[in-house]
Amino acid sequence: MSTSPYFLTLYVFSALFLPTSANNLVQLNPCRSYCGNITLDYPFSLRYGCGHPGFRDIMFCINDVLMFHVSSGSYRVMEIDYAYQSLTLHEPHLSTCDTIILGSKGNGFAVEQWRSPYFNPTADNVFMLIGCSPQSPLFEGFPQKHLPCRNVSGMGCEEYYDCPAWSLLGGHRRVGSSWLRSGPPECCAVSFEAIKSINLTKLECEGYSSAYGLAPLRVDGASGWSYGIRVKYSVQGNDEFCRACEATGGNCGYGSDGVRQLCMCGDFNSTSNCDKVSSGSSRSWQGVGRIVAGILVCSLSWI
């Protein structure tokens, strides 16, 4: 039995090139993840080894609900804005204009120290702490005229007091201009930058609310605020490694140590990018394997 040169050439090309092409089609972006209607791209991922190492073990998909987990607790992710590098979070014990939740049940917001360079609430995010004790660390070292309480991006307690939820709370103070005689104000608005951690237990507060601004949109009154926690994320530096990786067709990830960045190039990983293969890479050996496979296929066909 003989085989024409045409079919012999076809077999060789099939053995050498089709496996590579199929692999590239399947792994166009193996690190992209989905949870409900939210897409997770770099620096986030649901898959271990994908994304930025500083963002590992932080996102979880539970029944199509995306959850963000840090030291202060778990939050539902409402939105990921990749253009502005921000997350919008919500948790069930967050007070709003319609409901005030007391009992120190809320998560507040705090991240592990090693994650702090990566995540911080945005500058226009105001935290309004409710029902804090006179002995709260929030008021330590602040004389009457220099309270830490202040408006943040035009949002603060004076407007928040006008919310209907306050009328449902009996016996709660609203103003505290003479707080040294009557106790601290019932609501104290602060920026995250001012105290670095919103921990209701440590601050001895009964509850909290959080709202953020969406510039250039400005609304009048707390009833029109956007309630939730708006977190700015940063991958630190200019992230040249990932840009070089993606420019050569790779996907950004990290090694088994959870620290070292890797460029995933389909059938091999690189410590630089997909155009620069280290001596230890498996790509060359896989290329040899394809050549051998091609020769074997041709030989069997010839026989």
TrEMBL record:
Keyword match Secreted: no
Molecular-function annotations in GO: polysaccharide binding
GO cellular component entries: membrane
Transmembrane regions: none
Primary subcellular site in the record, as a coarse category: membrane
InterPro entries to which the protein is assigned, alphabetical: WAK_GUB (IPR025287)
Subcellular localization(s) per the UniProt record: Membrane
Position of the signal peptide: 1-22
Domain Wall-associated receptor kinase galacturonan-binding stretches: 31-89
Record keywords: Signal
Membrane topology type: Single-pass membrane protein
Domain of life: Eukaryota
Alphabetical list of Pfam families matching this protein: GUB_WAK_bind (PF13947)
PANTHER family assigned: WALL-ASSOCIATED RECEPTOR KINASE CARBOXY-TERMINAL PROTEIN-RELATED, WALL-ASSOCIATED RECEPTOR KINASE GALACTURONAN-BINDING PROTEIN
Identification of the protein by name: Wall-associated receptor kinase galacturonan-binding domain-containing protein
